[in-house]
Design brief:
Layout: H1 2-29, H2 40-50, E1 57-60, E2 68-70, E3 75-78, H3 80-84, H4 88-105, H5 109-138, H6 141-178, H7 185-225
Parallel strand pairs: 1-3
Antiparallel strand pairs: 2-3
Helix pairs in contact: 1-7, 2-4, 4-6, 4-7, 5-6, 6-7
């Protein structure tokens, strides 16, 4: 029993620690202004235009760190602080979201694969535990296995997300440095913001893999009992 409690405590703490780290890092560098004095929206617009993406809109979103790129509407949405602010953190986040727009323009394979997996991953995340619990309470290993397969689709989505996010961050740094939007020490600060954000995706993927492996071992044990 103690082992299970420790296990669940660990998988609960990993994403929480990652989220706290990104919030702490973002808060720190949101107080550091860029020497260019450009707002996040202005930086996003500059990078988009420089890459021939004049058709992509930059809009102000809602909420804290709600920044995202919508490939369907071709829109970069920045949270209010990043849209209006002139901080290094806002610049890094804005450039990262534009990185996704550039991926979309270049038909980046991992981005396309992730988009294709969205409906499958949604079904898997919503139904996997239903079948897993049915399998546990009825001792039907086939139902348990179906739950594992559905969960695996969600895990695959998380794994594919990693190269998409890391590539967007790489593109972001390349753009803001080459265009001279940030300079000198600001580059190091921007990298810290992007790295902290990337760790949240790594943490989520790690927890998903660990949980999937645990369920696979349970399934193997069920087969051994048959």
């Amino acid at each position: 029993m103690a082992g299970f409690l420790i296990y669940f405590l660990i998988i609960a703490l990993i994403p929480i620690i990652a989220q706290l780290n990104v919030k702490k890092t973002f808060k720190k560098y949101s107080r550091v202004a860029t020497t260019s004095g450009m707002t996040g929206s202005e930086m996003a617009r500059r990078i988009l235009d420089d890459n021939g993406l004049q058709h992509v809109k930059v809009v102000e979103g809602r909420g804290f760190l709600s920044d995202h790129y919508n490939p369907l509407t071709k829109t970069v949405a920045l949270s209010p602080n990043n849209y209006r602010g002139t901080s290094v953190a806002g610049a890094a986040v804005a450039a990262h979201e534009v990185g996704h727009a550039i991926q979309d323009q270049e038909d980046y394979s991992f981005l396309r694969f992730r988009h294709a997996l969205v409906p499958v991953a949604n079904i898997g995340s919503n139904l996997s535990w239903v079948f897993i619990l049915i399998g546990i309470f009825t001792s039907l290993s086939q139902m348990f296995l179906l739950g594992i397969i559905l969960m695996a689709a969600g895990v695959l989505f998380q794994l594919i997300t990693l190269p998409v996010e890391f590539n967007a961050s790489f593109r972001a740094m390349d753009q803001i440095v080459s265009l001279g939007l940030i300079r000198n020490e600001e580059e190091r600060h921007a990298k810290k913001v992007l790295n902290a954000a990337a760790l949240t995706y790594v943490a989520a993927a790690a927890v998903a893999i660990i949980e999937l492996l645990r369920l696979v071992l349970i399934y193997v044990g069920m087969q051994g009992d048959d």
